[in-house]
Structures are given as structure tokens and as C-alpha cells.
Amino acid sequence: MSFQTIFKRLMSERMAFISFFILVFLIIMSLIGPYIVPHDPLKQDLAKVLLSPNTEYWLGTDELGRDIFSRLIIGSQAAIEAGLFAILIPLCIGVPMGILSGYLGGIVDDIFMRIVDGIIAIPSILLALGITGALGISLWNAMIAIGIVSIPQFARLARGQTLQIRTEPYVEAAKISGAGAIWIMVKHIIPNIAPPVIVQASFNLSYAILVEASLSFLGMGAQSPQISWGNMIQQAYSMINMNPWMIIYPGFAIMLTVLAGNFLGDGLRTALDPKYKKA
């Protein structure tokens, strides 16, 4: 299936189409944000604290007189970085573990799956908190923790797909022809498990953004003066009754991004389905 066909199918799904461009827009904002923000997101102006949205400060100011709109744009960087780490780490660790486990079986399968079971046995947010606490409180360590927590999902998915594919006739034919295990995994297994892995990566993007915001809200992620949507909510929490806009905007940004990632995942699942047929 060509990339053009997949993209056409994806764009034919309305919610996936909208979600795709929301995420593209978010990525662009995270890259060019520092150059286009109307105000310095770290600059404090105690003469302009807690201003309501106006023509100068489109989303108002916080308790230190900082522009909420500028901080919201810069905060997208932490969200995108967390999402990328939550995809790259399990792709580089979890997927190879799953492929080797499913194809080789035996003691390799037992060792890898027991590691995965051990990670799954601990609730994700608690494991992320523990890893962050062990590595040290910082945004980068929070991202590493999110990536590690995501490994079991990719490992189990890759293993399950590999168990199905390794019994296919073309794999058996490759074995009979003398192909080695590595060649078979690279040539036959990886290309065939790619679609469900891509779909899982899209869902994981949303999950990672939510976990990063949770860790930052709990003080275990981005630390001041770093900006993330999670610590924006943390700082605004004590003033929710007096100045609700301070917490509404980052909360809405998180919600919109998570929904976009989920809808994109649903669209990718349909677009990558070989049995797809548009009604």
C-alpha cells in the first residue's frame, strides 16, 4: 500500500483530517513559538497581574504579570518533546523486544515477557513518578520515564503480531530457502507489523502528553522557569475561583491535543486496514 493511498484514506476521515492538522499546527508552534510570541513568557510585570483577556494580552496575565498566551505557545514544546520520547524509546526498545520474543520464543520470550510483566504490574503514573524520583526531578527525566512506561504496550503488540506472521507461508518459504532470522525479521516481520505499531504510536502521543502534564502538575516534571501546560495548571490551581481563565486555557490545550491524537489513531487504524472500504 503506497503512502499516497494511506494519506488519501486518512484525509477522507473527517475527524482524522482535523486532528492531523491540529497536531501539525502544534508541532509548528513548538518549533517557531520562541520567534513569534507577542511577549516574553518569562517577563514579570507586577503592574499588570491577573489581567483579563484584552487586546494587548489576548488570554490575560497570570499572578506575576506574565502573558498567558505566550506561555501557552512555549508550553507546547514540552508536550511535543514528551510525545516524541514516548514514541522513540518504546520503538527502539519495546518493538525489538517484542519481535525477538515472538520470533525466537523459548528462554528469550520468557525473559523479555517477564520484564514486560514486571513493568505492567506497577500502575503507570506511579512507575513514572518512581523513575523520575530516582533519576532526579526534571523535564528530561520525566520524558525518559514516560518512554519507559510505554515500552510494554509496544513490546506486547510487536510480539503478538510476530507470533501471527512467523507462521505465514512466505516466512516458512524464506526459512526453507536458507534465509537467516535477522533477514526474515527485517524483510518480512517489521514491514508487516508496522501498521499497528504506527497506530499505537499515535495513541501513545496523546498518552504521553497527558502523563507529562500530570507529572509537571505534581512538581515532578518541568521546573520553573521551564514552561509546560502541566505546571501552568499547577501555578493557576490556587486561583481557580478568582481567575479561572488561568487554568482553563492550558487545560483546554491538553484536552484538544489528547483528543486529536486519539482521533488520528482511529483514522490511521482505518487507513492502514487492507480491508478498508469507504461507505
Mean pLDDT: 87
Sheet-strand content, in percent, reads under 5%
Fraction in helix: over 70%
- The number of helical runs is 11
Q: What value does the Rg take, in angstroms?
A: 22 Å
- Return the structural class: mainly alpha
Low-confidence stretches: none
Outline the biggest β-sheet: none
Which of globular, elongated, flat, extended, rod-shaped describes the shape? elongated
Distance between the termini: 20 Å
Element string (H = helix, E = strand): HHHHHHHHHHH
Number of strands: 0
Written overview of the protein:
- By secondary structure, the protein is mainly α.
- Helices cover 73% and strands 0% of the residues.
- The protein has helices spanning 3-12, 14-36, 68-92, 94-104, 106-120, 124-135, 139-165, 169-176, 181-217, 229-237, 245-271.
- Helix 1 crosses helix 11 (245-271), helix 5 packs across helix 7 (139-165) and helix 9 (181-217) runs antiparallel to helix 11 (245-271).
- The model has no long low-confidence stretch (mean pLDDT 87).
